[in-house]
Design a protein that fits this description.
37% of the residues lie in helices and 25% in strands. The longest helix is centred in the first third of the chain and has 20 residues. The strands form 2 sheets. Strands 2-1-3-5-6-4-7-10 form an 8-stranded antiparallel beta sheet. The chain has 250 residues and is an alpha+beta fold. It has a single domain, classed as RNA Cap, Translation Initiation Factor Eif4e (2-Layer Sandwich), CATH 3.30.760.
């Protein structure tokens, strides 16, 4: 008698523990809805970014530089980025003398911007349009994906379209910090997978005071005046073509 009572208790417990078919379906539906809702949630980026476009091919003589510079769109999610990338022209499709920029929101792609005034840029040439597009996309993904350890010093990237040779330039904030810039340059070279020599140059706004900056800030191992060509500009400001280099063999 006791054995039968125990068997009944165990059987009843098992029946209660097994959910009904309706309960299973309800749970599955609720789980699916939760997953679907989660998938709809945008994937936020670490910071906001903005695309800029400048068509210098239509620039009229005598018009100040920057007047044709336009902000295209500001975004802060992965979904927005891929939508923009699929809809906006690739750099190779732009007309000659056009510039395409991706910069952190709040920074204008101008030397005069406070975030860029003491900075410079790493530059790499591109003789093939397809290669320019590949380097551009790899750089964009590296920027919005925060792949640079020194991300706070990076301002953005510029694609310069020309008839003979295009160029990609990575803008940074602190030009006089050689170790910092070399680290950024090496990482960028790895990201875009190029063998060409990369060069770093100061922005003109910084070059205006370069002699004193060289005396006070640049490492003694650098010899800017012996290795760099100085050319007078129409504004009276002098420009240094190259300050740092990453050679092909690196």
């Amino acid at each position: 008698m006791l054995t039968k009572r125990l068997e009944g208790i165990v059987k009843g417990s098992q029946e209660k523990a097994v959910p009904s078919e309706a309960a299973v379906e309800a749970t599955a539906t609720a789980t699916t809805a939760t997953v679907t809702e989660r998938e709809k949630q945008p994937h936020k980026l670490e910071r906001k970014w903005a695309f800029w476009f400048d068509n210098q091919s239509k620039r009229k003589q005598g018009v100040a530089w920057g007047t044709s510079l336009r902000k295209v769109y500001t975004f802060d999610t992965v979904e927005e980025f891929w939508c923009l990338h699929s809809q906006i022209f690739k750099p190779s499709k732009l007309p000659a003398n056009a510039y395409f920029h991706l910069f952190k929101a709040g920074i204008e792609p101008k030397w005069e911007d406070p975030e860029c005034a003491s900075g410079g840029k790493w530059s790499v040439p591109s003789n093939r349009k397809a290669n320019l597009d590949n380097m551009w996309l790899e750089t964009l993904m590296a920027l919005i994906g925060e792949q640079f350890e020194e991300a706070d010093d990076v301002c953005g990237v510029v694609a310069s379209v020309r008839q003979r040779q295009d160029k990609l330039a990575l803008w940074t904030k602190t030009a006089t910090n050689e170790a910092l810039q070399m680290s950024i340059g090496r990482k960028w070279k790895e990201i875009i997978d190029v063998t060409d020599k990369m060069t770093y140059s100061f922005h003109v706004s910084l070059i205006h005071n370069l002699p004193s900056l060289i005396m006070n800030s640049l490492p003694s191992s650098l010899t800017p005046f012996s290795s760099c060509r100085m050319t007078p500009e129409e504004t009276g400001v002098q420009k240094v073509d190259t300050v740092y280099e990453i050679c092909q063999s690196w």
